[in-house]
Each structure stands twice: as structure tokens, then as C-alpha cells.
Design goal:
62% of the residues lie in helices and 0% in strands. With 181 residues, the protein is mainly alpha-helical. It has one domain: Lysozyme, CATH 1.10.530.10. It is globular and about 40 Å long.
Length: 181
């Protein structure tokens, strides 16, 4: 797991929304570790997301998913690191589990184009399954659709609750930033 991915995961443990462009830490100032992790993760996402913009926009258009939501998922899942791998075995930009990747026809989840296409299609499937409700679709993306059905909503898992909150905060941030361009 890369440093940026590790720091992104650390930052995601906080229920507070991610900040857009925090001031750079000053070498002489004491910066709390969590703020530093957030700053680094945010800067990393901003710098690397543009490398995948064309693929994200194409997949969003192909499947009818807002590209900013796809960007928010990728930022949360992998910090835009195409070589990211979780301890559970999820792989690539959109952290697809092997069985999910296979069911989506993704032969190589480390290939950014395949990962973005497959992950966006999977996100669309969850959005369709849960009537377009992004909260439920994101919870299903993270914890599985069965858990969402079992609990009749976002499961009471802190990881999933934080995941949904963080992805939606990042989505709102990206939407605001891109509309101000």
C-alpha cells in the first residue's frame, strides 16, 4: 500500500469532511498528524486525478454516472493510486474485489482504464438497485448490497458510515470546484 493510500485511509477514519485546499504546513509550525495526512491526501488526489479525467468522463457518460461521483469514489478508495491493494484483496483505482472484477469483465484491475470502466459500471448497478440513492449505493459499494438490504439502509458499520460521509463530502467538494472553473 502506498504512503498516499495509507494516509488517505487514516484521514478517512475521521467523520469530518475532507477539506479542499488546506494551507501547506509550515516547517516551524506544529501540524497535527491527522491534518497533515488530510493535506497530503488531498494534494495527492488533486494532482493525480487529472491523469484519469478522460477515462472517468467517458465511463461516467457511458453509464450515466456523474464523473465527480466516480472521482470521489476513486479518491476515497485508492487515492488515485492504480497499484493500490487492500488487505482484503481489493485492487486498483476503484478497489474492486476479485470476484466483482471478474463479474464485470475486468481482467486486470490494476489497468486504470479497466478499473474505471468496471468500477463505474458497478457503481451504476448499485445506484440502479437502490433507486438512485447515492447513500445506499455507496454503502453497497463499500459493504455489499446484501448488508444494505439486511439493515434496510446504510449498515451500522463505522467504516461504511464514514465511507459514505467522506465520499459524499468529496463529491460535493469536487462539484463545487468544477462549477467554479
Amino acid at each position: 500500500m502506498s504512503l498516499a493510500t495509507t494516509l488517505e485511509r487514516v484521514a478517512s477514519l475521521s467523520p469530518a469532511p475532507l477539506v479542499t485546499a488546506p494551507p501547506a504546513p509550515q516547517p516551524t509550525a506544529a501540524v497535527p498528524q491527522q491534518d497533515f495526512a488530510r493535506t497530503l491526501a488531498s494534494a495527492n488526489s488533486a494532482q493525480t486525478s487529472s491523469a484519469y479525467d478522460a477515462a472517468i468522463d467517458a465511463a461516467g457518460s457511458r453509464y450515466g454516472v456523474d464523473p465527480n461521483l466516480v472521482r470521489a469514489v476513486i479518491g476515497q478508495e485508492s487515492g488515485f493510486d492504480p497499484s493500490a491493494r487492500s488487505g482484503a484483496g481489493a485492487a486498483g483505482l476503484m478497489q474492486l474485489m476479485p470476484a466483482t472484477a471478474q463479474s464485470l469483465g475486468v481482467a486486470n484491475p490494476y489497468d486504470p482504464a479497466q478499473a474505471i470502466d468496471g468500477g463505474t459500471r458497478f457503481l451504476k448497478e448499485q445506484l440502479d438497485r437502490f433507486g438512485g440513492d447515492a447513500h445506499l449505493a455507496l454503502a453497497a459499494y463499500n459493504a455489499g448490497a446484501g448488508a444494505v438490504v439486511q439493515y434496510g439502509g446504510v449498515p451500522p458499520y463505522p467504516e461504511t458510515q464514514n465511507y459514505v460521509t467522506n465520499v459524499l463530502a468529496r463529491y460535493e467538494q469536487l462539484t463545487t470546484e468544477r462549477s467554479n472553473r
